[in-house]
Amino acid sequence: MATQAAVASPEPYTELEQESSLVSVQSSHPKAQAFDPLAFPKSRKRQLPPSRYRFRSPRYDRGPMHPHQPLHPSDPASREFVPGPFSSPRVELAYHSIIAPDFMTMCYQHTPPGFRPGEKGPRLRPWIGDNPYFANRQLRGPRGGDVLRLLRKPITFRNVPMVERVTVHAFCKGALKGGSGYLHVAGMILQAITNQRVVVHKARSNEQGWGLIRGRPVSLTVDLKGEDMYHFLGKMINVVLPRIKDWNGVRATTGDNSGNLSFGLTPDVVAGFPEIEINYDAYPTKLIPGLYITIHTTASCDKDARLLLQQLGIPFYGKIVD
């Protein structure tokens, strides 16, 4: 009986449609069946070049609503595609493998589950007094200065401080008297040690005491990012700075309270870069400029930025001001 019931019951898939809705329906019209999309291109006497049928990324980005969107820069077919990196600088490898984990370990602050920090008072102070001018007046700055510093967030694996960019600046004092040779030599030196094109800056106003004349070129700058930045830091930390005689390091008071530190190099120290030393005769000794180097970091205070640069190999001396 069980066998007869099993045979009599319909199969579970008989009620489903046998044809899929995704399959294109073939038309029975004779013109539709005779249509050949490749017949017209083949009928041309002269075929179009193969590049006509290739996809080309648009030259300009016309917005997110445009139907023709450019490819991502990581796509080899994109116009902005840059192959590589094939190798990473030694300083960058040391940061990602050693410095960043150690930095997070030293600055880690443990908070138990469910911990809620106490509410802090307002950073700006109101004007207290009976003076009628205090009404509807803007709040006062914090005690000790009018500069409102950045808030320091707890260090986690998401916000470990790192070097963002390096600015190299050269002020040519000899160019104030009309000597263009100072600018040419400074530009050659900056381009040799940074591998970047320099940017020329002109005086914005007339200053009698400084000898500035408005519109005259007086200084050069270079902004370094990525691989060139790490190569420059590696040369400066491992080759140039250790060769300075009786050098204690960078003053610990340097900084702008936002994680950016600056220091200077004399012309004698600039001549110690490998690119300048190997071709020292090409640069007149009296025209070699001094450099002002500003290291921009993602740290929110000078304390974290100083700790990062110390791990990279830049020493500090003197009274530490946080």
Average pLDDT level? 85
Distance between the termini: 92 Å
Using the coordinates shown, work out and report the CATH topology of the domain at 164-317.
50s Ribosomal Protein L5, Chain: A
Number of helices: 9
- The total beta strand count reads 7
In helices, the fraction of residues equals: 25-40%
Low-confidence stretches: none
CATH superfamily of the domain at 164-317: Ribosomal protein L5
Order of helices and strands: HHHHEHEEHEEHHEHE
CATH architecture of the domain at 164-317: 2-Layer Sandwich
Strand content: 5-15%
Report the major sheet: 5 strands, antiparallel
The side-by-side strand order for the widest beta sheet comes to: 2-3-1-6-5
| Strand-pairing-aware structural class | alpha+beta
What multimeric state do the chains show?
single chain
Please state the overall shape, judged from the principal axes of the Cα atoms: extended
Radius of gyration from the alpha-carbon trace, in angstroms? 33 Å
CATH class placement of the domain at 164-317 = Alpha Beta
Pfam families: Ribosomal_L5_C
Region (Disordered): 1-81
Biased composition (Low complexity): 19-28
Family: Belongs to the universal ribosomal protein uL5 family.
